[in-house]
Amino acid sequence: MPARSPDRAWWWDGNRWVPSGIAVGAVRYQYQPTAWTRRLQLIIVALLVLGLVVAVLVLPSAMTQIFQQSINRSVAQQPTNDPAAGAQVRQTMTSIMDATVLFAGVFTVIFYGVVLVGIWKLWRWLYWYFVVSGLLASVGLLQNLVDLTGVVPYPFPAWFIVPGVLSGLAWLILALWMIVVYRRYGTWARRLMPVSADTGTNFP
Prior knowledge:
single chain, mainly alpha, two-stranded antiparallel sheet
């Protein structure tokens, strides 16, 4: 069968090797995107944005309820019913909550910035990060199913489980699809293709 040597300098015509006319060292390999590359990028960005929107809309109401319950328990555990002591506890816990929210907000901004740059530049390690994270979402799905049964006390409202189930299922399906894409094309649905070092064009 006709074939080229790995350095593309020789051509096997079926009987013998003959020069291909391509100078040795004039070929390099690089990843070339396919039609699925951009689709994969858009799907991941859409899931990230959707998760961020849901977190912004849902988490404040749920966290406020849990935070208020935590304050009430702390105040109730005070040895006296001194209003000043209760106010001090509330002020301290409010400061802790504000610092936690500030830290989480800064971390989220940095994390999303790095991730979006990685998606744009098609970092390979980030591809596998999404695959592993998506597969681990199956653990979250099992936990959500346990929470729905009510066997284990769940600190959040029952309706809070629904976004978690949908998000975990979406990421799990995406991770399985990314594995299939890797088997067929490579990371980020790209093929490793030989190109000319001088012109940058693809070889057949």
